[in-house]
Amino acid sequence: VLRMFRILRMLRLFKSQRSLMLIFQSFVVSMPALWNISQLLFLLMYMFSVLGMVLFSEIKANGPMADTHFKDIGSAMLTMLRVSTGENWHELMFALTRSNHPMYECIENPSYDDFVANGMEPIGCGNFAVAVGFFVIFVIMVSLVFLNLFIAVIL
After folding, report:
1. Measured between alpha carbons, how far is 77 from 98 in angstroms, rounded to an integer?
2. Would you report the helix, strand and coil content of the chain in percent, each value rounded to 5?
3. What is the pLDDT of residue 26?
4. 3-state secondary structure of 59
5. What tens digit of pLDDT does each residue of 45-76 get?
6. How far apart are CA 99 and CA 97, in angstroms?
């Protein structure tokens, strides 16, 4: 409990340093705008997660898709969070574009019977245009626009 009161010593530092007080006040004033932008960012990530589940949940896992996939909403949200940070999003995008060839066997338009025959694991092939369009639009909207907007509100 006493350690928590030590943190309050920082408030005395704010009072003595005028420039720190201005920065702190501007941060407090920008909190509602930051909340609004973070809600919009969450909504955008949720929409892209649901769209990713619709488009990519049938694609057979390969490459970096071992821990990033679109099988359920939680994993899809984590995948979109990973993509928004810029961590190897291009590798995930190219993993979702793979088509059928001898090294990677998949079915172009799998049915439910194909899904059951594969032990309830996705067996579908990717689509180059859909995957590239999805990820490029997401990266432009989230990484380049919304995150910079988030930073601009603080400044």
Report:
1. 22
2. 70, 5, 25
3. 83
4. strand
5. 999 999 999 999 888 888 777 778 898 999 99
6. 6
**So what's the pLDDT on residue 148?**
81
pLDDT digits (tens, 9 = 90+) for 121-139: 888 888 899 999 999 999 9
DSSP one-letter code for 65: G
Residue for token pair 């705008």 = 33
DSSP 72-137: SHHHHHHHHHHHHHTSSHHHHHHHTT---BTTB--BSS--HHHHHHTTSS--BPP-HHHHHHHHHH
Round to whole Å and give the CA distance between 137 and 143.
10
Q: Which two tokens stand for residue 13?
A: 């530092």
> How many Å apart are CA 89 and CA 5, to the nearest integer?
43
Q: What is the rounded CA–CA span in Å between residue 152 and residue 64?
A: 33
User: Does the predicted model carry a pTM greater than 0.85?
Assistant: no
Residue type, 46: Y
Q: Which two three-digit tokens encode residue 92?
A: 């995930």
